[in-house]
Amino acid sequence: MTQLSDKILNDISEESEFEGYVKIDRYNSEKIESIAAHYHDILGKLGEDPSREGLLKTPERVAKSLQFLTHGYDMKPAEILKSAMFKEDYSQMVVVKDIEVYSMCEHHMLPFFGKAHIAYIPNGHIVGLSKIPRVVDAFARRLQVQERLTNEIRDCIQDTLKPAGVAVVIECKHLCMAMRGAQKQNSVTTTSAFTGEFVNEKTRAEFLRLITASLD
Ligand SMILES: Nc1nc2c(ncn2[C@@H]2O[C@H](COP(=O)(O)OP(=O)(O)OP(=O)(O)O)[C@@H](O)[C@H]2O)c(=O)[nH]1
Ligand SMILES: [Zn+2]
């Protein structure tokens, strides 16, 4: 097993702060070392030579990469929303669309990625707009299935902001269906979850119209 370089050790010992309210232990040295050791073995089992130059640092890179790709476990999505809720007398639909989603399927640990479209109808409070994509990331940066990701985002916004309704639509491509398995390159999976006023057909139709409308 290769030694972790000084630079990586320095990175690891740094704890980064996330907007002052959620601590992310970005590179936990014990975790990185242990995951890297497993990947060193995996490389050998795949028929590779883990001691060849190009692969020397690969186990550590993979370990750090995996820790980044699952950093949502260290985030507190409800706290993210609570940190920027403002009293406001606005009761029309607020839509944030085309939010990039990068997640990993829990079955194959391969990426699925695409877009999330989210709306809520305020009920006395609005939320800082950037907090919506941050909540998406907090749930997406974990091992997921698209359906649970969709419901978790809906429930978090509903339970924390307590709006008159929440709508979440997510469209993703799953690499486990494209690179392997069914090998379908163009299929896109759409999931949706609604609460409150979005259960009403007219409100839902308005949301769907807004997320398909172009700005041009
Ligand atoms: N519902 C759902 N299924 C998912 C998601 N991501 C991956 N999957 C599916 O999880 C299933 C796992 O099925 P298994 O039969 O246990 O695994 P497998 O033998 O690798 O299946 P194939 O992918 O068909 O080769 C597959 O059908 C995947 O397409 C997701 O987000 N939601
Ligand atoms: Zn999968």
With strands numbered from the N-terminus, the spatial order across the biggest sheet is 7-4-5-8-9
| Number of H- or I-type helical stretches | 8
Oligomer: single chain
CATH superfamily of the largest domain: GTP cyclohydrolase I, C-terminal domain/NADPH-dependent 7-cyano-7-deazaguanine reductase, N-terminal domain
Q: Roughly how many Å is the radius of gyration?
A: 20 Å
CATH architecture of the largest domain, by name, is 2-Layer Sandwich
What small molecules accompany the polymer chains?
guanosine-5'-triphosphate, zinc ion
Instruction: Report the CATH topology name of the largest domain.
Output: GTP Cyclohydrolase I, domain 2
User: How far is the first residue's CA from the last residue's CA?
Assistant: 55 Å
Number of strands: 9
Binding site for Zn(2+): 105, 108, 176
GO biological process, one term: tetrahydrofolate biosynthetic process
Family: Belongs to the GTP cyclohydrolase I family.
Enzyme class: hydrolase
Please give a handful of descriptors for the protein shown.
alpha+beta; GTP Cyclohydrolase I, Chain A, domain 1; GTP Cyclohydrolase I, domain 2; 2 domains; 8 helices; 9 strands; binds guanosine-5'-triphosphate; binds zinc ion; GTP_CycHdrlase_I_dom; hydrolase
